[in-house]
Amino acid sequence: MLSEKEAMELGERIMGHICLVEKYRVYAQQAPDPQIKDILNRHQQMFQNHYQTMVGFLQNAQNFPGGVMPQTQWRYS
Fold this sequence. Notes:
With 77 residues, the protein is an all-alpha fold. The chain has one domain (4-58). Helices cover 74% and strands 0% of the residues. The chain is built from 2 helices and no strands. The protein has helices at 4-30, 34-63. Helix 1 (4-30) packs antiparallel against helix 2. Mean pLDDT is 83; it is low at 67-74.
């Protein structure tokens, strides 16, 4: 069970991860060095995996009695 405050804090982290995924994607596209591009792509994937884990946690929390899901649905495609 998540408190409203915990759900909001997790939501803020989710939004931060969306920004990081996008930044790493752009940086990787612009990187001229293949090794740097690979590092940036791996970081992007790591943050995207974290994002998916947190969204899954929020979705599971809403299925438990007393679980909280903020009004906003976060989704990264």
